[in-house]
Specification:
Layout (H helix, E strand, L loop, with lengths): L1 E8 L3 H10 L10 E3 L2 E5 L11 E6 L9 H4 L7 E3 L2 E4 L4 H13 L6 E5 L12 E5 L4 E6 L2 E6 L10 H8 L7 E4 L8 H6 L3 E6 L2 H13 L6 E5 L2 H4 L7 E6 L9 H7 E14 L5 H11 L3 E15 L2 E12 L1
Parallel strand pairs: 6-7, 11-12, 11-14, 12-13, 14-15
Antiparallel strand pairs: 1-3, 1-4, 2-3, 5-6, 7-8, 9-10, 15-17, 16-17
Length: 327
């Protein structure tokens, strides 16, 4: 049957397969196929594939020897993988139980299933979980060649933002000074450092910072990573006019920290500002807030207006890539 596939020359096949696997985009229900020197790699979500790859519809055979969750339940399953943990979001206990059992029975390389039991809450950005299979919430997640140790019960982490993080990471040059104001376990900071940047990550969550330091060691970039536990507003005085690149991924309240971002920005700085707004005007409020904080001290140039994902009915999670140049 025809399914979305990344099409690449055979010589680039293994590198591409590894990149797609790191982003958890390979469709394990279908076979990778070679024809006329081209490799067709089936993917789960064509819209999440990085733009550098060509996505086509191609007739590839289904895997006959592997059972997937969709083969077991009588509804369309939805789940995400964080390392060897599957994460689901089901309000109906019977449906959640059925999906958890199907995931464990399937060929997916997971042995733990967690169901979201609360929204992200508090300043530490954690949520409650129901453990439906297995007995742990800690894992090691791979994303675009980096490894992240984390405990989902203790820190915030979303695998669904992998493509967006990679979009930003690919903009980083060696020698940059990059600052993540709400760093978590380091999904921006660590790959920044692997590209040769000097990276600083700040977070209120002490456990997240411990994992960030571990992840810096795990990925062999500890010499280029500084991890600080605390409120970024209290830390900023040590990094005034320092950052060539700033990440503000706290979409419900990033606007409250824009004055701090301006203090951190160097004479020319790229700001990645994440926001959640109504679909009628998803970018206007963020741009207005940035200009109010930065002008006239900086010239403000919005280089990218990008929708990351749908967040809720009529609400969008968006990002503004903004270049600040000191006047």
């Amino acid at each position: 049957m025809s399914v979305p596939c990344v099409c690449v020359g055979r010589e680039a096949g293994e590198e591409t397969r590894e990149a797609l696997a790191d982003a958890d985009l390979i469709d394990d229900a279908h076979e990778i196929t070679v024809e006329d020197g081209q490799l067709y790699i089936p993917v789960t979500d064509a819209s999440a594939v990085p733009a550098r790859y060509e996505v086509v519809s191609y007739d590839v055979p289904a895997r006959e020897t592997q059972t997937m969750p969709a083969d077991v339940v009588d509804f369309e399953p939805s789940y995400a993988r964080v390392g060897d943990i599957a994460v689901i979001d089901e309000d109906d206990p019977e449906r959640a139980r059925a999906l958890a059992d199907a995931i464990v029975e399937s060929a997916l390389p997971v042995d733990t299933v967690l169901n979201r039991a609360s929204k992200v809450k508090g300043d530490l950005r954690v949520r409650d979980w129901d453990v439906l299979a297995g007995d742990r919430t800690e894992t090691v997640h791979r994303e675009y060649g980096c490894e992240f140790a984390l405990d989902l019960a203790e820190v915030y982490f979303s695998p669904r933002l992998a493509t967006e993080r990679h979009r930003v990471v690919e903009q980083v040059d060696s020698g940059e000074q990059a600052f993540d104001m709400f760093a978590g376990v380091g999904p921006f900071v660590i790959p920044f450092a692997t590209r040769g940047a000097e990276a600083v990550g700040v977070d209120l969550n002490e456990t997240a910072i411990e994992y960030l330091r571990e992840n810096a060691r795990r990925n062999k970039v500890a010499d280029r990573v500084t991890a600080i536990q605390g409120d970024v507003r209290d830390v900023a005085a040590e990094y005034v006019n320092w950052a060539d690149r700033l990440v503000m991924n706290l979409p419900h309240s990033a606007d409250e920290f824009l004055d701090t971002a301006v203090d951190l920005a160097s004479d020319e700085c790229v700001l990645h500002y994440y926001d959640i707004q109504h679909e009628d005007d998803p970018y206007g409020p963020g741009e207005e807030a940035i200009r109010a904080a930065a002008e006239p001290q900086y010239e403000v140039d919005v280089e990218t207006r990008h929708t990351v994902r749908s967040y809720a009915p009529h609400e969008l999670n968006v990002v503004l890539d903004v270049r600040l140049v000191r006047t």
